[in-house]
Amino acid sequence: MLQHFVEETVSPLFSSKTQPTLCYMGKILPEISAYPRIMHSHKNHVEISIIYSGISRYLIGDRKQLIQPGDILIYNSGVAHDELSGPDTQIGSYFFAISNLEIQGLRPNALVADDVLPVFHVGQDFHTLLELCETMLKQMEQPGEWAKYLLHFETQALLEIVWRSIYHGRKPQEGKSQYYLGQRIKEYIDEHYREPISIKDICRDLGLSESYVSHTFKDMLGYSPMQYALRCKIGEAQTLLISTDYSITEIARMVGFDAQSHFNQRFIKYVGISPSKFRKNYRNR
Question: Which residues contact 124 (CB under 8 A, 6 or more apart)?
Fold first, then answer.
């Protein structure tokens, strides 16, 4: 007979009155990442992305980050992010959306402070983390009688590993954005991108010159203001395609396109496939 003893008791880090809840999870195969999620954010949950293959740059908030296997990306609720993968830079990842997350000293549904760089490396726990991801994925795909209970505690384990990767081994790099005016421009576009705005509108409403707006914003994010606004439209459209049953014509109108043909053209240019095929791909995964 083999008998093993538990050496110590465990006090969960995440034991607030409202327990963290796994809303959804999934696995993105490298070939699927050729059709990237464009600029988007999540209002009511934090998203954790775990990279298992590929190297690329992602835009998170107002910073571009180089990501590679073993990296954990933290998308706090409300933080816009842009996945810059494509046919030449395919990324394999697991993703987890978790709500009801309350951590002392942080706002609801945040794992790190908003002024902390949100990319962390797992280190020695990487293979353990990948095994946990696969176990959870199988339970989501083939749910049994006890799956919801197992997933609840596995979500706790996932958060513990992620927390240790964030706060052990190295201090997160802090520092507020150098570009205060660039941030003002970004916030303006985030609020108005569904409207037919132009550079002139931005300059008029913020009291800035056109050349200053263009150069400051591109220095900060790598996009012109109008490119950023278009990526916001496409990203919002992708979210609606995945999470709602609105028709493509309705979605095009909701994100600010006057004609579905123009929306289809822009969507294919930025994502690589049509809106209908994108919806089908996500719903069949």
Answer: none
Report whether pLDDT(234) > 70. yes
SS3 assignment, position 82: strand
Q: Which two tokens stand for residue 147?
A: 């799956």
Give the integer Cα–Cα distance in Å for 35 and 238.
Answer: 11
Residue 180: is it exposed, middle or buried by C-beta count within 10 angstroms (0-12/13-18/19+)?
Answer: exposed
Confidence of residue 132 (pLDDT cuts 50, 70, 90): very high
Same domain, 212 and 257: yes
- Given a cut of 50, whether residue 171 has pLDDT beyond it is no
Spatial CA neighbour of 199 closest among 215, 178, 219: 215
- Residue 89 per-residue DSSP state: B
Give the separation between CA 155 and CA 174, rounded to whole angstroms.
27
> And the tokens for 246?
């609105």
pLDDT at 71 over 50: yes
**Burial annotation 28-45 (CB, 10 A radius, 16+ → b, else e):** beeebbbbbbbbbbbeeb
pLDDT per residue as tens digits for the range 253-275 = 999 999 999 999 999 998 889 99
pTM of the model: 0.71
Length of the chain equals 285
Whether residues 220 and 111 fall in one domain? no
Residue 75 falls inside a structural domain: yes
27 and 91 part of one domain: yes
| Identity at 234, one-letter amino acid code | I
